[in-house]
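# step 3/5: fold
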Amino acid sequence: MSILGQPPRPAILLVMTQSLQYGPVRPLFAIAGNLTGLLLLSTCSVLGLSTLIMYSALAFTAVKVIGAGYLVYLGVNLWRKGLSISLSDDQGESRKHGLHLYIQGLLVAATNPKALVFTMALFPQFINISGSLLPQFTIMVTTLMFFSFSCLLFYSLLAHHIKGRCQSWLTSPFSGKIFGSTFMGAGTLLALAGHR
């Protein structure tokens, strides 16, 4: 979640931007993709696979550069094309590009090394190695995904609410530049993030 004093997380930026452009239905695809990415990272953490990335500077840098590059790519697209605000919430149209939006959400989650660090730092503290791992893993991941879903849905609905009040500003050429710059800034901050 975004905390006061910190920049919004890439997944929040993605979901809010999609909600502004397409209405509240389509961002559900990106949210599903983001949850899939979190499930992937969580599985890697529990299985210990993420240790390789955490303790290999080269692997960590590769994930970081890919994630930062993807955020910059999204930002450049928004900068060039602007926000294509949809004035109606056409659910039939919302399914048209669902796979594309799902992949966006998946890539933003799976290439975020901060999410990897978070899952690796959180889960081992609550795992009882003498007990069965599957039920513990299921409870922790379900809880994480529930709160992540709730947070992203909240920001999606918030953006949709803002859209109704700021229609003229959002359709101006400057809105795409601002949102694009935000994505590029998030990508730059991710690229400059330290290994630990």
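# step 4/5: annotate
Residues 1-7 have pLDDT under 50 and may be disordered.
# step 5/5: archive (pending)
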